[in-house]
Structures are given as C-alpha cells and as structure tokens.
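Teaching note: in complex prediction, the entire set of molecules is handled at once rather than each chain in isolation. The prompt given to students was simply: 'Predict the structure of this complex.' The entities are:
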Amino acid sequence: MKDQAPLLKVSGLTKTFGGVTALSNVDFDLQEGDLLGIIGPNGSGKTTLVNLITGFVKPVAGRIQFRGIDITGWPPYKVVGEGISRTFQMVRPFYQLPAYKNLIVPLYSPRVKKLAGGRYGDRSAVALDLLEEVGFERDAYVSYKKAGALPQGYLKRLELAKGMALRPDLIILDELFSGLSLAEVASIVPIIEKLKHQGKTLIMIEHRLKELFRIADRVMVLNYGRKIAEGAAAEVMESPAVKEAYLGSEA
Amino acid sequence: MERRKERIDRGIKARSADIFALTSYREMLYLLIPGAIPVVGLLCFSPMLSSYWREVMISTAIYALLAMSWDMLMCAGLLSLGQALFFGIGSYIAGSLNYYAGLPPILTMPVATVGGGLLCTILLLPVLRLRGIYFAMVTLVLPLMLSRLVEATRILGGTEGLTGLTPFPNALTALFIIQLALLAALFGFRRIMGSDYGLVIRGISDNDRSVMSAGLNIYWYKAQVLFLGSSVGCFAGAFGTHMDMFAGMPGFALDYSIMPVAAAVVGGVGTFAGPLIGAFILVPLSEMLRALGALRIVFYGMFLVIFVVGIPEGIFPFIQRKYQQMERWVDVE
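The expected output is the structure of the full assembly:
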C-alpha cells in the first residue's frame, strides 16, 4: 500500500495573513482510503489548511497535488470538480429551505452531472436518499422541515450530506463533532465508518480526540501553524511536543 | 350538524407540487386564478383606458420592467442602485440603430435587449466580486458617468440627444407590446426562480461559500443573472426610446434607478409579482398627486412610508399569505 502514489500530497504549504503566519511549511501525504485526523489547539492553522486545500484561500508558498495534478491556487469549484469536498465548521444551511432542498445546490454541480452520465435526474429523490444515509428517518417529516427549524445534530448531518452529495473521493470534515452531544456523536460515527468502508478518503479536523482516535488511521498535530507530530494516535499523544502544546510547558 | 372552518388550500398544495391529480374545477381555479389575474387585468382592461391613462400605463409598465429586472439581480444578492444604466444603454442602442442605420423598432428592440444585456454584463463583470453596498455604489455611479461622457464628448447627439426616431404605429400597439413583455418577464422570472437553477441563485445570495463548496462557479451564475436582469432593463429602455421618439441623456436619469427600488420594496422583494404591483401603485399614484402641485412629493413620500411601515413584508407576500389562509365552512360528522 505505502509505495503507491499518494492521493493527496501537500508540500511546503505556507500561508500568512498580514504579518501573522497561519501555516508554515506543512508537508503531508494521504493514501487513498485513509482517514487522517488533524488536531491542534485553537488557532493552530487547521481550518486554514482546509481552506488552502479546497481553494478558499491561496497559499503564499507550497504545492498541493491531488492524484498527481497540481491544484495549488485553484478556485473552489474546480477543486470540487477533481473530487474534493468539504464541510464547514460553522454550519450555515439555507435556513428558509426544507432540509432536502438544501442538497439541491450540490446536486446541481457539474461533477454530479458528469458522474451521473450527463443526466441530473430527479434531484429531490436523490436528496431524500442522501438524507436517509446520514440518519434522517425516511418517511418522517424531518427531511421536509425548514433547515432553520432543525436541531444542531441534524444540521451537522445535513452538512455531511452536502459534502457527500458531490460524490467526492476525498471528504474534509471541519469539526463535524463540535457542538454535539455524546449521543449525537455516537450516531454519526457509524456513518463515517461506512464512508471509509466504501473506500472514501477522509480528513477530519477534530477537538473531540476520544472519538477521533477510535476511527482515525493516522493523526497529525499542528501548533502555531507548524506540524509538530504525525503518526498513530497513541504514539502521537506520547510525543513531548504534543504534550507541551496541549497541556502547557510544565507537563 | 356541527361546522368548522377549514383552509381551502388543504391538500391542494401538496398534490399540485409534484403530481397533478386535482379533483375538481374548484381546486383548479384556486391554482389558476392568481396567474390569470395579471393576464386578464393587463390585456383586457388597459385598452379601455382613456388616452391619458394609456400613457400613464405605458410609463408604469416601463418602471415595472425595471423593477422586475432589479428584483432578478437582487435574487443573486446583487443590489443595484443603477437601473438607469440598463435603461440608458438600451435606449441609446435602439436609438442609434434607428437614427444612424434606419432600422425599424421591430429590429432595434431585440438587438438592444440582447446587445444591451451583454454590454451591461461586460461593464459590470469586473465588479461582480463586490457584494452589497459596494456593488450598489458602482451601479449608482456608472449611469451618471456615462451621461457626462455623452455630454463631454458630444457623441450620440450630445446634450441634444437623438430625435425624430420611429414611433410605434399607435398607442394601443405600444401598450400591447409592453404588456406582453411585462407578462413574459413576470412568468419567465418566476419560473426560473422556482426551478433548481433558481435555488442555486438564491443560494448565492444566502451563503455564497456554501455554493462555492458545492462545486459551482458563482461568478458565472452571477453573470448569467446580470445578463437576464439587464436585458429586461435594456428592453424597457429601447421601448421607451421609440415611445418618446427620443434617445438622450435623460435615459440615465436617477428616476429610473430610484423608482424600481421603491416599487420592489413596497411590493415585496424577490417575488417579481411584488415589484409589478408596486410599480402599478406608485406610478399612477404619483400621476394622481400631480394636482397637489408642490405638495405632491410630500404626500407621495407619506404614502411610501405608510406602505413600508404598514406592510413591511411587501404587498404581494401579504396578499399571497391571505390567499393561502382563506378558509371555508365545512360540515363535521
């Protein structure tokens, strides 16, 4: 497996905002089918990394290659076209629309059309199927409710469904578990495991380490925009640099 | 026998949304009447008007088109304060084609509609990335700049404008042309915005990042909306030019920018029928207040405030809500 070319290859990625270095010289590889967890304290550059990969901000230096194609600095819609989708930490659905109608927008994308063989088909039916996959009860009213009336747990699932609707090869989940109860997290974990089982490659940005370590193959730790550790969850947490970042210098 | 109230639309909406299995003529009428009102109202009643009110009706329809064009841009989150740009460009294109090349209105109007739409889209393309008030500022300034450009360079007739253009054969023909355009824009825009495409457009104004991450190029969609909106505005300009037999700097006047916004706000933003109703209230109202002389603008302003404060959601959404909430008495077993 390891000698195979990586699906995503990030090298020397650097981003500064004004004088602040948000991300500094980050390298990592991601093999197809892997689930990489990215952790780090607040402000360590996790979300900036996601924004860089998905084209929402442009890097100062460094390269991002997806399947050997250099996608550095591409606009978001082209990155999605290659097969990378993302969810947002702050969920902002279209509140006025019923939940399933929220999925019409990603289902409208050229990528979905291409994968469906040039036909869009009935987007509403596809949307309802997708919602069922992320745990909206079928035949219940909940899929037809306005997104503004849904509880946080459902909004996060809806966000996940939006990412899945694009039928991506790599899904980047930005703090999917934040703001959810233990029970809600426990009900989303199997959905992610299923995605992994289907052969999707995932990157998860998380603060909920316990749940993350249960499903992640590898973990990467960022602090002040630098990669300070990478490897299996247990060994990473034993690293002195990580302990310092998380617990303070006296630990 | 007991009786209780029941909403008329009970069941109708659910059945008519996807599958067409309406059971009675009453239900069909319930759905058809709202669409039939503008068609019947415009095409049947306006010819009965006196020639003075026909003129008023035509100028109302021009403002209504500009208001719907404004509403279309608003759907994609593009706040325009420069509908005069579209009116003026449409007016000058139709005017110069007629003045210099001698083309008849039947050719100048379509060319001005499509060509003007393209020209306006290209003009505004560099500022499409701006949002809200920043986009609005640019649209406000552009028509003022263009009218000064015409004045300074004396092109296209300069301050005199292009005069003696071909008029429409008669007022009734003109009225029918503009009313058909009005209905086409009303039903066309409503249909577009009711489709999945419309959902994407509204998505751009709600949360553009979400639409970007859905793999859609929002600037391409914004440009399409800009083209749709501005070509309707240019049509209004081309029509107005042949109506007045004149194309000139007044085409870029502030009136054409302000009135459509007022009409849309009074009528209900984002509904297309709202801006239409708004224009059909505000323009004739302004005519009727003419008798008041200098006090006209005071009363006009007062009416505007009353509408906006009294029905902040807009007239059309208000009527729509009342229509959907209509009840009838039914027997209870």
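Point out the following to students. Chain B touches chain A through 18 residues (CB under 8 Å). The first strand of chain B starts at residue 2 and ends at 7.
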